[in-house]
Write a structure and sequence with these properties.
InterPro entries: Methyltransf_25, SAM-dependent_MTases_sf. Residues 59-150 form the Methyltransferase domain. The radius of gyration is 17 Å and the shape is globular. It has 230 residues and is an alpha/beta fold. β7 and β8 (185-189) form a beta hairpin. It contains 8 helices and 10 strands. It has helices at 2-7, 15-29, 35-39, 41-47, 70-76, 87-96, 135-145, 195-204, and strands at 58-61, 79-84, 102-106, 118-124, 146-157, 166-167, 175-179, 185-189, 207-214, 218-225.
Amino acid sequence: MAGEDEALVDHGLPDDALLAEQMAYYQARAPEYDRVYAEREDLRNLLAAADELPISGDVLELACGTGQWTAALAERARSVTALDAAAETLDIACARVTSPNVLFTQADVFTWHPSRRYDTVFFAFWLSHVPPSRLPAFWNTVREALAPQGKAIFIDEGPSEAWREEFLAPKSASAVVRQLDDGSRHRVVKVFHDPETLTGDLATLGWSADVRLVGGSFMVGVAEPVGERG
């Protein structure tokens, strides 16, 4: 294990290499992914938060995973286009959500560009997996995908959840090590955004955002591009 841990030390791993490991982790984790929702009541309660969010019209869901949030979106939306890069998680999502207004598409959010615009762009537990250096490009993609007066809505862990993670050594502010049932260990991007700091960062990128903590553990944000109200 010592040799394996040494191999996982953060030696300035480039974003592309780290994201490739992150992808491999989620492909391998697909059969285990839903367990956390079964184990944590606060996550199950959080799913009900979709009813209080301004989700409407045609919705784009980025990094939909196994579809835990897709079904809730489908109940509120005219249509849902749900993207994920991992075929393994999409297979589970397709089996879980059979609503006729949902279209699942395999695509890498970091290279994908929208061919149309949506009233709502939604992503849950994804923003924390975006490397800091790629935040501007990511939010540009979200902007490209939004129709006039559209909103970006996101949910993620708040800073108080950082204790659950094993950060890389030497300690990294943006990468952690996670272990799967088979004992394999994987480096994953994980950034715990402070709501106030994130609000300021988004303002710098041209967004007006309301980001708040919910239940102390989770962060919910609603953002609109400044000056693009149609």
